[in-house]
Design a protein that fits this description.
3 domains, Aminopeptidase, 20 strands, Rossmann fold, 486 residues, 19 helices, 34% helix
């Protein structure tokens, strides 16, 4: 199928736009194929004509493009999807095509996505495009895999498209072709949310109909070949991702965490004194998609003392009986942003078996996953005294923990290594009761990575109570109820 040229407003170029409705006229190929020996042989062998007479154009395709709408062209290869998008693009000078998005050399992914917006807005777009791993945010586009490059282009296009006006569509050809089917569905699910919330105007072309249930296009154009098509209008509804009913939450173990350790933004795999682990699995015996780890908490936390009115000060026995800390939450990168993280936390918190569960999360500054799961945000942790001291000492030695040569500094300068090792040892001792032997056998690279992970951010403190009302306002000692028990 060949497509007739679309028309800009006020011009008769074979198409028209009226009140946001775009009319595309398609016609069948015309003209006679040049006769060659091979063409003649194929025509005789299969009973075909060497020429094709002009046919009357098929019925025009009318689609409604506008803010908050998704239009999907669906059909097999060669049905005209790509040509349809190029004709639509010709109607809108401000349109952005994902396939033609480029990256500035020397600029990281996180700097390339929505550079005029906030960091939180940029990370929200990256997560929606299934690019939710911090280690990928600080890489260059050329360093990514092919699937990751597509996701990065999509994220950058979304960022560039923000604020360009609702009339201009964002175009994405071959949507989901290079992705794992589960990742394609997750991105489709997240795009539907972004389009509805942000008023974007999205047009995609795909041969994969399995994503339509999550993408929920307002208009679906099925290209059937031979100039035939079918247009379906459907109002999107709010629903969970298509494979959510197959998901199972069940008890797990430390061995399960080995599959997720590399996916977490912390370089250290230290889990503390683990109490319970739960995994999110895709069906009975299916692939692991998420994990949450609950451990015994550190002896002292200032924000915990403030939230519980000092209930656990110098009382480790009570602390061990009544409180656990959510030490790790990791969701497979393919399905991040689909609500699976707060579902896993929300459904496992009551299964931990303690009145209180706390959490320290650096990602809390940009991702409200724990609040969505029902935890109370108490505040942001102040910089610990030993952390401030370590950073001050390194500054005096003209050492930057974020510099590329930090590992080399730890390796070659004994004083730098002592400062780093002391800080890491104190953290191990506070969380696991062990530290000296572990630090002694760690390489400079592991020490440097662990140090960076511990001092690189100020985590947000969350607290969950089995009795939610008592979490909303910290009760006083002696006020009765849960906090009055010994």
């Amino acid at each position: 199928m060949a497509w007739g040229p679309p028309a800009r407003a006020g011009r008769n170029l074979g198409g028209s736009t009226v009140d946001g409705v775009l009319e595309l006229r398609c016609r069948q190929p015309t003209g006679e194929v040049r006769s060659t020996a091979r063409v003649t042989q194929v025509a005789l062998q299969f009973g075909l004509s060497r020429g094709q007479a002009d046919r009357a154009p098929s019925d025009p395709i009318r689609v409604h493009l506008g803010p908050g709408r998704i239009t999907a062209f669906v059909g097999p290869s060669g049905s005209g999807k790509t040509t349809a998008l190029s004709r639509i693009e010709a109607c809108y000078p401000n349109a952005h095509s994902v396939q033609r998005v480029s990256f500035v050399p020397g600029r990281s992914i996180v700097d390339s996505v929505l550079p005029a917006g906030t960091l939180g807005e940029a990370l929200s777009i990256l997560s929606a495009c299934a690019l939710g791993e911090p280690r990928l945010w600080i890489r260059y586009h050329r360093e990514l895999s092919e699937g990751e490059k597509f996701r990065a282009r999509l994220a950058r296009a979304l960022g560039l498209h923000t604020g360009t006006g609702a009339a201009a569509p964002l175009l994405c050809d071959e949507f989901g072709t290079s992705l794992h089917r589960r990742a394609a569905k997750a991105i489709a699910f997240n795009l539907r949310k972004l389009v509805s919330r942000g008023g974007l105007n999205l047009v995609v072309a795909t041969s994969n109909e399995d994503i339509l249930g999550d993408l929920q296009p307002d208009t679906t154009v099925h290209l059937l070949g031979s100039g035939r098509h079918q247009v379906i209008e459907r109002k999107p509804t709010r629903r969970a991702i298509s494979f959510s009913r197959r998901l199972r939450i069940e008890p797990g173990g430390k061995r399960d965490y080995e599959q997720f350790a590399a996916m977490h933004y912390r370089d250290t795999d230290e889990l503390g004194f683990v109490d319970k682990i739960f995994v999110l699995r895709e069906g009975l015996g299916g692939e692991l998609l998420g994990i949450v780890v609950y451990s015994h908490g550190p002896l002292e936390l200032a924000l915990r003392n403030r939230a519980t009115q000092g209930r656990y000060v110098r009382n480790p026995g009570r602390l061990n009986r009544e409180l656990r800390i959510l030490r790790r939450l990791v969701i497979h990168p393919d399905v991040r942003g689909c609500g699976l993280g707060h579902r896993l936390v929300r459904e496992t918190l009551p299964r931990v078996g303690t009145p209180y569960v706390e959490c320290l999360a650096a990602m809390g500054a940009v991702n409200p996953v724990f609040e969505k799961a029902g935890m109370k945000r108490i505040g942001t942790c102040a910089q610990p005294a030993d952390q401030a001291r370590a950073l001050t000492e390194l500054t005096r030695l003209e050492v930057d923990p974020q510099a590329r040569d930090f590992v080399l500094q730890v390796c070659r300068r004994s004083r730098v290594r002592r400062i780093v090792a002391r800080f890491v040892y104190n953290w191990y001792r506070a969380t696991t009761g062990r530290g000296e032997r572990r630090v002694a056998r760690q390489s400079p690279q592991v020490l440097a990575q662990t140090f960076r992970g511990l001092v690189g951010s100020r985590p947000v403190y969350y607290l969950w109570c089995r009795d939610g009302n008592r979490c909303s306002a910290a009760p006083r000692r002696g006020a009765g109820g849960l906090l009055n028990r010994g």
